[in-house]
Design goal:
mainly alpha; single chain; 15 helices
Length: 397
């Protein structure tokens, strides 16, 4: 039996015995690194910038798990049934309706031309299809727009983690000069001119009324409602063997074994909610600018992979136009002192099966939110979606 076959079997046994924890421990050991290097197929050398992936991972023998081992792995990816909410901002129909209205309302920007939904488009996985969003000044912002899907479970927000609650995150872009550019006091004054808004705030937050805090609370209630856990992958996890292809199933196994992707994209939401430097060429210090220390330089928050196929381009720079380009990055990344040690264990190769798996993570967007997005476009006089999509594809390389 070939050495790499023995290593694949050893990895499978680790899965059965200890689930993802066992694999992660092995991946961080010398034995795990040997598995990643030998189990990647016939790929060879390092990337031109010092990456260590090889380019033949798709041609190696697949990792084979028996039914019990696969069931143990799948159990790690069962989505929760309830949504967490802070005690001081429990959801209600009035709060949800108010937050939804605010999210799609461009009047809370300085120009009246930019809503939260302008950058977090319901048709594009609540991103916007641009390398970097365009703010009220008409210039690109510093970073690519993150999705707001499944943020109810996050503990820290933005690429650099500068907000610690969703309520805080929700209002920060509104008064950021280059983003929506609306000072908070002017935002409140503008909303108070609308009698319907005053009634909605009084009903949703009796005794608190309309203010910056309740705007943040209402937006957070709406954002926590954006729960996306009804994908083909979730149906497969629940027992429908026909929900995804055999290639996607093998991609899921590769993702969790020799691919090493699970080290950052862990659990049902495919994010460790942490910060990692993955070797993207950049002068942006990332988390280091907020929390200087070991492991934070050029480190950015791990995004969820939910609905990732809808959210091109990728990374905080928006520099990769496709999932295939993302996969290639892990064969050709920039090696530097701050690079996450987890990158030593990433071996995705050509990644065709991993891409097939990632494409199964798309849950349908509620039609009402699509309708509101299209209504916003008409209100702002934007081009139809199909024309806009082609423009986005061109500008995203």
């Amino acid at each position: 039996m070939r050495p790499r076959h023995l290593i694949a079997i050893a990895a499978a046994l680790l899965l059965f015995a200890g689930g993802l924890t066992g694999i992660m421990a092995a991946a961080q050991s010398g034995e795990g690194q040997q598995f990643a290097q030998q189990g990647r197929g016939d790929g060879g050398g390092r990337g031109r910038r010092g990456g260590g992936g090889g380019n033949g991972g798709g041609r190696g023998q697949p990792v084979v798990l028996d039914a019990a081992q696969l069931a143990a792995l799948k159990a790690q990816y069962v989505a929760p049934k309830t949504v967490p909410h802070p005690a001081d901002n429990a959801p209600s129909a009035a709060r949800l309706a108010l937050g939804q209205r605010l999210f799609f309302d461009p009047s809370i920007s300085a120009t009246g031309k930019l809503a939260c939904a302008s950058c977090h488009d319901a048709r594009r996985g609540f991103s916007d299809g641009l390398e970097r969003s365009i703010g009220v000044k008409g210039t690109p912002l510093a970073r690519h727009t993150q999705t707001v899907i499944n943020l109810a479970w996050s503990k820290i927000f933005f690429w650099d983690g500068r907000a610690s609650t969703l309520e805080e995150q929700a209002v920060m872009p509104i008064n950021t000069e280059d983003e929506m550019g609306m000072p908070h006091d002017l935002m409140v004054a503008t909303l108070r001119l609308d009698p319907a808004y005053r009634r909605q705030f009084d009903a949703a937050y009796p005794g608190e009324g309309l203010g910056v805090a309740t705007v943040g609370k209402a937006l957070a209630v709406f954002e926590r409602s954006l729960v996306f856990t009804n994908s083909p992958f979730d149906r497969w996890i629940a027992g429908d063997e026909n929900a995804i292809s055999e290639e996607a199933k093998q991609g899921f196994i590769q993702f969790n074994t020799r691919g090493g992707c699970f080290q950052c994209h862990s659990g049902w939401n495919f994010s460790d909610d942490g910060f990692n430097d993955i070797g993207i060429p950049t002068d942006d210090l990332g988390r280091f600018a907020i929390a200087p220390g070991k492991g934070t330089r050029h480190a950015f928050k791990t995004p969820s992979l939910r609905n990732v196929a809808e959210r091109a381009p990728y990374m905080h720079t928006g520099q990769f136009a496709s999932l295939r380009q993302v996969i290639r990055h892990y064969d050709d990344f920039e090696r530097r002192a701050s690079l996450s040690p987890k990158m030593r264990n990433v071996r995705v190769g050509r990644g065709a099966n991993i891409i097939a798996f990632l494409e199964t993570l798309t849950s349908p967007t509620p039609p009402e939110l699509i309708r509101l997005q299209e209504e916003l476009d008409r209100r702002l006089g934007l081009a139809p979606r199909a024309t806009f999509s082609r423009a986005v594809q061109t500008t995203s390389r």
